[in-house]
Amino acid sequence: MFDFLKGYDLLAAFWVTVQLTFYSAVGSLIWGTVLAAMRVSPVPLMRAFGTAYVNVVRNIPLTVVIVFTSLGLFQTLGVTLGADDFTTINFRLAVLGLTAYTSSFVCEALRSGINTVPVGQTEAARAIGLNFPQVLRLIVLPQAFRSVVGPLASVLIALTKNTTVAAAIGVAEAAALMRVMIENEAQLILISAIFAFGFICLTLPSGLLLGWVSKKVSVRR
Amino acid sequence: MKLHKVTVAAATALVLSLTAVGCGTDDGNDASSGDEKITIGIKFDQPGLGLKTPDGKYTGFDVDVATYVAKELGHEPGDIVWKQAKSADRETLLQRGDVDFIAASYSITPEREQKVDFAGPYLLAHQDVLIRADDNSITKPEDLNNKKLCSVTGSTSAQNVKEEIAPEAQLQEYGGYSECLTGLENKVIDALTTDDSILAGYAAQPEFKGKFKLGGFKLSNENYGIGVAQGSDLKAQINTALEKMVEDGSWDAAVEKNFGPAGYKNEPAPKIGVIVD
Amino acid sequence: MSSQSVLYDVPGPRARRRNALLTVVFLAALAAMVWWVVQSLADKNQLEWVKWQPFFTDSRSWSTYLLPGLENTLIAAALAMVIALPLGALFGIARLSDHWWMRGTAGLVVEFFRAIPVLILMLFANAAYSEFTDISPDSRPLYAVVTGLVLYNASVLAEIVRAGILSLPRGQTDAAKAIGMRKNQVMRHVLLPQSITSMLPAIVSQLVVIVKDTALGGALLGFSELLASVRPMSANYGANTIASFTVVAVVFVVLNFALTSFASWLEGRLRRGKRTTGAVVGADAVDQLATPGEHVGRDELDE
């Protein structure tokens, strides 16, 4: 029944998916935090930029974002991200595109986390003379992060599934292999089922783990 | 109150969308079950072969061949329902009976013949490369080494070039040829590789006049056939139609009309059932 | 929102100077970036009028490619929403059931469909429809796209419904029980009506996700939605891919921005409304809905 799997390197494809997910997750966490900081910062222009960024990027289909990284950034602007062969360039571009897209969701999650921090906390922080970066870094963000582990887990799961879009610019991840297999083998249902199972293996454990973490670290008020 | 309003809005949306779908379904039934109608799979995005033009019509060599064949089968051009047949979908479309036949730069290969039947061939094309007109560094296939190649996702012909002719070449894959052309224009891509018939269509577009040229390498032989469902009796009828098309000069006229502007040197009309390896 | 101004003091003269400086630096950086992008685009001839002209002077680019695509996108999104909503409510309520088997089954279904990429669900549906039904080939991609969207989004909506119901003050349930209501009466007459109003913004902004996800049907199923219209269009207009994708992106942004604006308008209205308890699952909460486990919502529901 599974003879047709010979000649296809499923694990390698899923490994690319895992790598895409990992680097994009790290990138989105950083850039998303910066965006969230911008959205609550005292500088009006930064607030405006943060709002505009989130509203534009969130509303564009991911496929378009990813294709733009290749057509716009790479082809037109000549951004190669320090690589010189297509495989590496495409992988890094995909990570960049996924990061740009996912960080808008991370930003929004964090912002609602910031809103849950009681006003008294920040007032107390300001009363002892902390300035804005200090308030954010020492008081607000640590609490905000703890309260949004659950929502961020959802974002991570969505990100894992979204890596399938990277096939649009030729990254050889799981969905790209699935397309090739569907084209070559007359086993549509079976192939879909195998890949569905693969994704469940990736998403379910991370969801459960982070669900447990979120319970552990949540701030009791 | 508010809940009520929302319910009404939702119900309206539901009714509207169901009406829309209802209409769609009716159209579909007309297309497949009517006696007069015939559904033909073509490409929508290949200038010169099969292209959906801004006024909603279809042009190209595949379209002209299909129209001629349909007429021989007793269907007027007005009775043809054109359906998009993407490369990956073609076998499935035939197996499911979604289309009556497919003329969509469909090369006859042993693997495909296991799944569908082919009438024809009706055109002999070759795999070739499209390069910038001012690029003189690529004159023979081996020059592709160390160059940047582009093709569409899952294209086996591009993989073959990389594996057999130019192992040092880099291959970029995109969802469509248009992205490759943008790359070629931007000088990030050095060569776009696929069938010369497709490349000629792109090179002949007014926007690209004088910008690109064909390499003329003949890297492979692509025998374009008309795909039909396995065991279909359409195959014999289509073959008769194709023979007649070549005899009465319509074939040459169609080639001239679609490939003439591209300066594409086509091969003479292939003999039915003769596959050039 | 109020917490934003709480994060920093009212700027004094020095802070104002620093803010002004930051504004100037940030503006300069943005301007430099925009200039670089425009310059590079111009260098590579991507701003040539011939590439953009079809969208402004040739109405056929809209009537032949973009508008029919937009129509399909809207139909699929509307259908998916209308079907997914009751289904999602059903599963959301089932997950709160007192019977373990009902909770378990609903939980399993919801987690399963949330874990699989929508694209795979669509492919699956497409194959199944052609195998086991006689839906006409022309409408099959639409059915498959809608099915995929429904399965996934009903699971997400189930979580929204669950969050919404959990967000209601306990007193509501207690009071309802105190006047002798049965379990399903409590749900039907007390919890659901209130939570539906409180969840509406979140539900509407889930529509944004649905609208964007219709684009997945274009690539593999041959569903001719808005994004798929780029391919034949750019083939006609000299491979103006950057221009075509930009126009499609703008259409998506405008469409979705209208939807999110509607969501926040609705949210504002509902907060002022009398029938709610004031609890609202914010428009943002959709993206943050908790995954497996019980941590749904408590944090974002306080906002």
Describe, in plain words, how this protein is organized in 3D.
The complex is a heterotrimer of chains A (221), B (277) and C (303). Chain A is an all-alpha fold and 221 residues long. Chain A is 77% helix and 0% strand. Chain A has a single domain, classed as MetI-like fold (Orthogonal Bundle). Chain A is built from nine helices and no strands. Chain B is an alpha/beta fold and 277 residues long. In chain B, helix 5 links the parallel strand 8 (148-152) and strand 9 (170-174). In chain B, strands 7, 8, 9, 10, 11 and 12 form a six-stranded mixed β-sheet that branches. A three-stranded parallel β-sheet of chain B has the order 5-1-6, sandwiched between helices. Chain B has a three-stranded antiparallel β-sheet with strand order 2-3-4. Chain B has helices spanning 2-33, 61-72, 90-96, 110-113, 156-165, 177-185, 196-203, 234-247, 250-259, and strands spanning 38-42, 45-46, 50-52, 58-59, 80-84, 101-102, 117-132, 148-152, 170-174, 191-195, 212-214, 221-228. Chain B contains nine helices and twelve strands. Helix content of chain C is 77%, strand content 0%. Chain C is built from 14 helices and no strands. Chain C is flat. The model of chain C is unreliable at 283-303 (pLDDT under 50). The chains are: A mainly alpha (221), B alpha/beta (277), C mainly alpha (303). At the A-C interface, helix 2, helix 3, helix 4, helix 5 and helix 6 of A face helix 1, helix 2, helix 5, helix 6 and helix 9 of C.
